[in-house]
Amino acid sequence: xxxxxxxxxxxxxxxxxxxxxxxxxxxxxxxxxxxxxxxxxxxxxxxxxxxxxxxxxxxxxxxxxxxxxxxxxxxxxxxxxxxxxxxxxxxxxxxxxxxxxxxxxxxxxxxxxxxxxxxxxxxxxxxxxxxxxxxxxxxxxxxxxxxxxxxxxxxxxxxxxxxxxxxxxxxxxxxxxxxxxxxxxxxxxxxxxxxxxxxxxxxxxxxxxxxxxxxxxxxxxxxxxxxxxxxxxxxxxxxxxxxxxxxxxxxxxxxxxxxxxxxxxxxxxxxxxxxxxxxxx
Length: 281
Prior knowledge:
The protein has 281 residues and is an alpha/beta fold. The chain is built from 14 helices and 7 strands. It has helices at 5-8, 12-15, 19-39, 62-66, 78-90, 128-138, 155-158, 177-186, 209-217, 219-226, 239-242, 249-254, 258-262, 265-271, and strands at residues 44-47, 70-75, 96-99, 113-119, 139-148, 190-197, 274-280.
């Protein structure tokens, strides 16, 4: 389930064990980010908010930083920002971080950065018009917003247990694509690409994806794909890949990518876990 990560996000930092679902998600997101990075000649990027509903927070733009992009991150939890900085330091990468209580204001000059981005993080934007206006003000080249797939079969399960009283910092209305598109157009930005992303063979449900893959592919194949057979105590994490210690990680994850490549849009609409919107001025 997605919602409990609001309270359990700290548990991912000691071991960085994100599991198969988030590991696959990171690789397909990296492919999209790299494509945009090269197409738009990006040199600087802002991720705000940087706390999304997946594993270790604040590392979505590591691959771009390794390619030479200057990265800025903003978050609304000072303790999480400290853990994010420690994680980047462990990767021997520099990153600029900033505390932002509500994302109504982004403390940058006009058109200061090339690329604006967030992934499954718009839930934490309380004032959507104000945030969109600020994002459009400080970004000059392109903005990529990724939201959970509200049409997906797993989405309602992800919201199980949600109520405004129980989770006052969570704003599901802020992940509505038509609202985001309308507000971006109001600021003079146009939607240039949109699609579904993160479409693995497992549904977007709150269960252990390794167990699901064992059911789907068989125990031996699942062990081979996740290295659980050879390294039973090894956390499944992208961080060793970023450190150059697991160069085969991306290939193993992309062995789950057949639906990502060949499934028709009508199928992805009900199965994919996320949807992305790419805007330019």
